[in-house]
Amino acid sequence: MLGTFSIRELHQKIIKQEIKIKDIVEYYLANIKKNQVKFKPFLNVFDKILIKQMDVLQPKIGVSRNLPLLYGIPAAVKDNICIENTVTTAASKILKGFRSPFDATAIKKLRENGVLFLGKTNLDEFAMGSSTENSAFFTSSNPFDSRLVAGGSSGGSAAAVALNMAQFALGSDTGGSIRQPAAFCGVYGLKPTYGAVSRFGLIAMASSLDVIGPLARNLDDVFLVFDYIKGTDVQDLSSFYPKTPAFVPKKDFKVCYVKEYFEGCDERIYKRIFSILESLKKENLIVEEVSLPILKDVLPCYYIIMASEVSSNLARYDGIKYGSSKLKSSKNYFKNLLDLYLDTRFEFFGNEVKRRIFMGTFSLSYGYFEAYYLQALKMQQKIKSEFAKIFKTYDAVIGPTTPELAFKIGEKSQDPVKMYLSDIYTVPANLGGYPALSMPVGFIDGLPVGLQIMADMWNEPMIKNIAGYIEKIIK
Amino acid sequence: MEIDIKKIENLSKIRIKTKIKNTILKELAKILNFASRIKNYKLGEDLKVIGSVNNLKNVLREDIYNNKDQHFSFNREIIFDNIPLKEKSYVKVPKVLKAK
């Protein structure tokens, strides 16, 4: 029952003292206990820390005025975002047992506003994957059918939210890692504008594409949490969010859909999204088709840039400073530093992580740099300028979030290239830096369908506006 | 395309054992085949490489110490706990210098 309330509704009940923070926490912990065995969204649950935190928060209720809306609200956090003095593994063996010495900026902001952290959720190792099957520990299941994937890489966060195991969750999105699992699990997931949320404390995968964002069961919660975590941060020099809105709010809007987005898409999803576009037209809104042939090559471009950055970012795992190490297991590694690196990284990185490091190493190496990495960067610029043109005419691009419904566990794990293809509609927002939301728009054969709304830089309010409109017409 | 697996191993600092060499080569060839599609994509000559997607530019400040810059500190004890091998307050590492 508690799970049907929005954050604003819960807040009213908390400040009117109709419910205690303890009741909310206990409700979510009970759901975690109930669903964890079957669906496995969590890697780690903080039951002991929670009790201490509740005891600090509860006494202020009824005493302090103007308590923040998030006060006493329990959240789940993807395990590649650091929470001080708790284990953060990024679902990798190489970080097994690693305790974070600080809070990520997003966590710090939530903590200052009274958010309670229930635990850390599962992901593909270092957020590399689309199904959580690359997690070094276990695979999380889809809330609608436990034989199917929850999506990824923020699959644990999406499943936890869908299964009422948290009021909201944080995820990270490099190529669709918030939106694709949100679509598969039937929840809302926002990938903010690049830099809108500080990456400080987010374990780096591809720094020029990574962004932290919220997942929740309703539209208002997603944007409310976003408002609390966004903002320029001195700890992340690539972060920026304008203090005054970059756009003037308006009620009528013009949207478009990209022709190429519907090629290779499951016909049932295609029809569902199209019927929504038709309904928008009936409301006398402008809905037009645009063509972007370059989108056919967006995935190779993304994979080269991402893998190149991965190969550089993951160089930090050396078996010396922190994390798992061969130094602990054998005296032999004291003879040769190079062997220590080679064997530590061989043993503790998973297969997909190694593949991406190898590919990135190759695309950055002498003789291939220009043909691969530089060419990919140029294509990224081209894709960005194509979308910039679109956003001069249209307020948003609407389409499906994924080309297919949630797939079976094991169906694609043997074929990395096939797995990469499931990111096709989500990757352009990362390459361009644009904000994009996946919202649930009904079911096909009992599985949720996600619709994606992508808007211009820093125009998250427009996305909320359009999503709210679509919600009304499909109800 | 020839992939020099020894070079990849050396640059990535990940051991590639002889046993799995062929599997890795096959996988890499498949991914590179997928990625190679962009090599022939015709792009305008004047196209510049993107700096940052949110149009931020690098700015340098004066090299003067400012108290306000000291806004963050890490938990030293936890950082130390995370070190795989240590002695007193030192990090232990394999020898990199060789005796003659």
Silhouette of chain B: flat
Rg of chain A, nearest Å: 22 Å
End-to-end CA span of chain A: 21 Å
Mean pLDDT over all positions of chain B? 85
**How would you spell out the order of helices and strands of chain B?**
HHHEE
Point out poorly predicted stretches of chain A.
none
**Proportion in β-strands of chain B:** under 5%
Output the structural class of chain B. Answer: mainly alpha
Biggest beta sheet attributes of chain A:
11 strands, mixed
Strand order of the largest sheet of chain A: 1-3-2-6-8-7-12-13-11-9-10
**Total number of beta strands of chain A:** 13
Question: What's the helix-strand series of chain A?
Answer: HHEHEHEEEHEHEEHEHEHHHHEHHEEH
Shape of chain A: globular
Annotation field: number of helices of chain B: 3
Low-confidence stretches of chain B: none
Broad structural category of chain A: alpha/beta
Largest sheet of chain B: 2 strands, antiparallel
Average pLDDT of chain A, rounded to a whole number, is 95
